[in-house]
Task: inverse folding
């Protein structure tokens, strides 16, 4: 029993150690989530609004808010993100390596933000959205997550690849069809960006072809 526990603990350590970007990011989110829990609701909203990637903040300091918004969770629920990062971000980092994984996440986060906010700006100027929408609260890591979920399509060998990408497109596409807002547009855009990151996956093995020389099944990032 003790031997099995040690083996399980070793597997967990290897899993975390070989996805440093994922778990450093997750640790940062934990710290900022704890900080939010110590703020009053009124101060918390104003604090997050100054770090939001809304039109007003993007016009004033785009680089600052694009970076800052990726380190705060609106709503303060950290554990679901711990699970999602472990299920999606960590496998993607193991597979692609830290730099390619980060490139995909950044492309999805930045690209989906700029495109969705650009559409919102057009909607405001044409009267399809209220001007108050330019100062909406918009922080979080969901665009980066959507992009990484999508790029994992290429990690799966056919025929299982097709049900997976179909499920991803349905999950993010149904809200877009049912009653889209700018976040729904952003999520679906992030999925398309993730799928467009196919060149970053070249040379990476698909699931059945992974090197099985290590019992943990974890690849060291490159």
Result:
């Amino acid at each position: 029993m003790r031997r099995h526990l040690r083996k399980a603990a070793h597997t967990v350590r290897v899993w975390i150690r070989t996805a440093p970007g994922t778990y450093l990011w997750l640790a940062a989110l934990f710290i900022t989530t704890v900080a939010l829990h110590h703020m009053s609701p009124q101060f918390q909203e104003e604090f997050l609004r100054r770090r939001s990637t809304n039109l007003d903040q993007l016009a004033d300091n785009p680089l600052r808010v694009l970076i800052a918004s990726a380190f705060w969770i609106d709503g303060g629920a950290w554990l679901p993100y711990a699970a999602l990062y472990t299920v999606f971000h960590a496998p993607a980092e193991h597979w692609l390596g830290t730099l390619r994984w980060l490139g995909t996440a950044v492309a999805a986060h930045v690209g989906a933000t700029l495109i969705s906010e650009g559409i919102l700006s057009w909607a405001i100027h044409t009267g399809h959205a209220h001007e108050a929408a330019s100062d909406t609260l918009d922080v979080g890591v969901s665009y980066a997550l959507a992009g990484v979920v999508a790029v994992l399509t290429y990690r799966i060998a056919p025929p299982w690849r097709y049900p997976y990408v179909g499920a991803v497109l349905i999950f993010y596409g149904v809200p877009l069809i049912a009653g889209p807002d700018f976040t729904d547009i952003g999520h679906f855009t992030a999925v398309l960006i993730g799928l467009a990151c196919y060149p970053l996956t070249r040379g990476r093995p698909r699931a059945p072809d992974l090197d099985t020389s290590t019992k943990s099944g974890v690849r060291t990032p490159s």
About this structure: Residues 98-125 form the longest helix (28 residues). Residues 209-222 have pLDDT under 50 and may be disordered. The domain at 2-207 is CATH 1.20.1540.10 (Rhomboid-like fold). The radius of gyration is 19 Å.
